[in-house]
Design goal:
By secondary structure, the chain is of the alpha/beta class. It has helices at about 15-25, 55-60, 65-85, 90-95, 110-115, 130-145, 165, 175-180, 185-200, 230-245, 280-285, 285-290, 320-330, 345-350, 355-365, 375-390, 395-410, 420-430, 445-450, and strands spanning about 95-100, 120-125, 150-155, 155-160, 160, 205, 250-255, 275, 300, 305, 335-340, 370. The strands form 3 sheets. It has an 8-stranded parallel beta sheet. A two-stranded antiparallel ribbon has the order 4-5. A two-stranded parallel sheet has the order 8-10. A hairpin with a 2-residue loop joins β4 and β5 (about 160). α1 (about 15-25) runs antiparallel to α9 (about 185-200). The protein is globular. The two termini are about 30 Å apart.
Length: about 450
């Protein structure tokens, strides 16, 4: 994610991509400025996207569906372990990198990162975008060269951060603040649907959204990117947006752990701090993340801020207490944790990219954002290998992150699930409306085995 800077699906030919674009542009123009009174109220059920926490009502109403979902998740984890068993250390480390590039077409530099160093993820910025056909073909060319499909990510929040809308590839999405102020959850669902369908048409399978930070009393550097100053409102509207993304097959990312809604300094430029007591951290900053875990977010992004009450010395991104301790140990999240960019000044004022990469893995992060060319990625990989050699990081710790990343890709259909009998069994339940094929049950946290816990 960037504070200020700038579908999963079959690979389409250029003609088919343009046809898809034309259909979506016509179909998805939404009446964002319509009066909220003309839509269902915030307390009404929002169509097919109304979400029941997995494993709760399902368990009460349909034991067989719960069992099928649990079996599918077990098969996902087993498949990830089997896939990982055949990987070299270089291949494993590569999966932990979310790279960016300067280019709009396939180049030797991209080949070095994707083919030579096995990058597992990519972020798209305006510098990579020329027109819809170019962007689609650029992403398709990268995926065609990858031995394991990449998580292709974009910050597609709406409002100030709407790459596809800003470059007029598609109609613009409303801001989070507009959605929250409307009081109308249906609009958030519409926005999530629109974002997902647009992204998938381009080959983008992961949205680095929604922002679930809660606006503080003194404002925030994030301004209209925040849904509300009310924790419950943020949870409801970000939840509706996230559910719409993931029901369409796009991975959602909650950000920015640990919550920076009352931070008035930009982590791109400096390292902000939060001096709130633990009671306020729990009630305001952590609450939305905790509440939305039942929606099974694909990823959570951690950003660069000092949380004085927990760890006054290490930025949250690099803090074992903030990641392994609270996010994993206390909240129980065992999915993919990605870093905000490690070259932002919030980190760079203290650490080089290679140093930050090592510290991020020690803290419990899985996906490292920040490598921007062959040299920067090679230096970060060399630092990780040195940390493994001297015992600061174990291969088991690397395997933990890689399994999470592979499981996420399997869960969203980017990699095949090996157990064909289970796939057929689960599909039959999904077809009857009993099981969501895209969402998996929460996993128990193993943070206490692998890292520090917060006391």
């Amino acid at each position: 994610m960037r504070l200020t800077k700038e579908r999963r699906g079959p690979v389409l030919g250029a003609g088919a991509a343009l046809l898809c674009l034309a259909v979506i542009i016509v179909a998805l123009t939404q009446p964002w400025r319509a009066s909220p009174a003309s839509h269902p109220t915030a307390t009404q059920t929002v169509g097919a996207h109304a979400t029941t926490p997995p494993g709760v009502a399902i368990a009460a109403n349909d034991y067989s569906a719960t069992l099928a979902a649990a079996q599918r998740e077990a098969a996902i984890q087993q498949t990830a372990q089997q896939d990982m068993a055949g990987m070299t250390l270089d291949e494993k480390l590569g999966q932990m990198f979310l790279i960016e590039t300067y280019y709009k077409t396939w180049t030797p530099d991209i080949a070095n990162m994707v083919v030579g160093m096995h990058a597992g993820a990519l972020i798209i910025y305006g510098k990579n975008m020329q027109d819809p056909t170019q962007l689609h073909d650029y992403i398709a060319s990268i995926q065609a060269h990858a031995s394991i499909p990449l998580l292709v990510t974009m910050d597609e929040e709406g409002g100030l951060v709407d790459r596809l809308g800003f470059y007029k590839f598609f109609p613009q999405l409303p801001s989070a603040q507009y959605l929250g102020d409307s009081g109308n959850l249906a609009l958030a669902t519409q926005a999530g649907d629109q974002a997902a369908q647009e992204m998938l048409a381009m080959g983008i399978n992961t949205d680095l959204a929604p922002v679930v930070d809660v606006m503080g009393p003194n404002g925030s550097v994030e301004t209209t990117r925040l849904y509300s100053s009310n924790q419950a409102t943020v949870t409801r509207f970000a939840g509706a947006y996230m559910d719409a993304l993931q029901s369409n097959g796009v991975i959602a990312t909650l950000k920015h752990w640990p919550g920076i809604g009352d931070v008035t300094q930009d982590p791109h430029l400096t390292l902000p701090s939060i001096d709130a007591p633990m009671s306020q951290l729990e009630a305001q900053h952590f609450a939305t993340f905790r509440a939305l875990l039942s929606h099974n977010p694909g990823m959570i992004m951690v950003t660069h801020v000092l949380v004085d009450a927990v760890d006054p010395t290490m930025p949250a991104t690099l803090s074992p207490k903030m990641v392994n301790g609270i996010l994993r140990g206390e909240l129980g999240y065992n999915g993919v944790v990605m870093t905000d960019s490690l070259y932002m000044q919030g980190i760079a004022v203290r650490y080089t990219l290679p140093q930050a990469g090592v510290l991020a893995v020690i803290a419990g992060d899985d996906l490292l954002e920040g490598a921007y060319d062959t040299n920067s990625m090679a230096q970060m990989i060399a630092a990780l290998k040195a940390a493994i050699a001297d015992g600061r990081i174990s291969v088991a710790r690397i395997d933990q992150s890689v399994q999470r990343i592979l499981a996420l890709k399997i869960r969203f259909g980017m990699l095949p699930l090996r157990d064909s009998h289970l796939v057929s069994h689960t599909a039959s339940h999904a077809a009857s409306g009993n099981v969501s094929g895209a969402l998996a049950l929460s996993q128990p946290s193993d943070a206490r085995r692998y890292g520090q816990t917060f006391a």
